[in-house]
Design goal:
The chain is α+β, with helices and mostly antiparallel strands. It has 7 helices and 11 strands. It has helices at residues 4-12, 59-70, 89-95, 130-140, 145-157, 204-218, 233-239, and strands at 24-29, 32-37, 47-50, 77-81, 99-109, 123-127, 161-167, 170-182, 185-195, 223-229, 243-252. An 11-stranded mixed β-sheet has the order 1-2-3-4-11-5-10-9-8-7-6, sandwiched between helices. α4 crosses α5.
């Protein structure tokens, strides 16, 4: 039986972290949790969550959170849950021009495997170099450095640790870890994974999974969660012992995205 805290971590992932005032804004509109991160036009960082608490949703609600994002002139995404989102919301999303673009598997690992499913000699290092992270994300997603920089700054402000995998001494992949806690319960959240196209197939992502999983359990986490793209990283996560709990869908008007959320 998963705790309420664990379920929230699974559903909201990186958005579960408390957003500092200088980083962005949070607002609850008729049960809809809306998040806005300053200085980025990437809708994956400006998202509204429609869950079981969204029963008060109406056309007026939609107008309210549209205004919330329009005030800052940023595009946004809408995230729904296969298990929790009220059915009445989907026709309204379609009428507003939103379509499902990305399916993410909400997955959990509650104990480390006795034998690591993948062993590699790749060099994995903790990275605090902002410019290196910006360059790697910009090349790997791909995305502009203009959007990558506030993303990296935000992750660091929220307490994420960033790890880089080196393939033949070249920074080739990146992944992050953030630890959320409530009382005695600690959960590790894996996110922000990206690999250079030229380095794919060398085990960089699997090596980063190994490193972050080990780090999370070393820090006393009771479980580890990840939101994995069903078309890419989900299969690898299953091989590492993660189990799927739910599926969330990101609805957008225009978006380029892959990997972990």
């Amino acid at each position: 039986m998963l705790s309420t805290f664990t379920k929230k971590c699974l559903l909201k992932g990186g958005f579960f972290a408390e957003i500092p005032p200088h980083v962005g804004k949070y607002k609850c509109i008729d049960g809809i949790d809306t998040y806005l991160i300053f200085n980025t036009t990437d809708p994956t960082f400006n998202a509204a969550f429609f869950t079981s608490n969204s029963i008060l949703f109406s056309a007026h609600s939609f107008k309210c959170f549209e205004d919330f994002y329009d005030e800052h002139k940023v595009p946004f995404s809408i995230i729904t849950s296969n298990r929790d989102t009220p059915e009445k919301i989907f026709p309204i999303l379609r009428s507003k021009g939103f379509s499902p673009m990305i399916e993410l598997s909400c997955m959990i690992l509650q104990e480390p495997l006795q034998v690591a499913p993948y062993v590699t000699d790749l060099n994995i290092q903790l990275c605090k170099d902002i410019e290196l992270q910006v360059e790697l994300y910009a090349k790997a997603y791909p995305m502009s450095k203009r959007d990558a920089r506030p993303m990296v700054n935000t992750l660091m402000d929220l307490g994420y640790e960033s790890y880089i995998a080196y393939v033949e001494n070249i920074p080739s992949a990146i992944g992050t870890l953030c630890i959320f806690s409530q009382g005695e319960e600690k959960i590790g959240y894996l996110g922000g994974a990206a690999t250079l196209e030229s380095a794919r197939g060398n085990g960089a992502y699997k090596s980063l999974l190994n490193k972050r999983i080990d780090r999370a359990f070393e820090c006393g986490c009771h479980s580890i969660v990840v939101q994995a793209n069903k078309k890419s990283s989900m299969k690898t996560c299953l091989n590492f012992g993660f189990k799927e709990i739910d599926t969330i869908i990101m609805h957008v008007k225009q978006l380029n995205f892959h990997g972990e959320f």
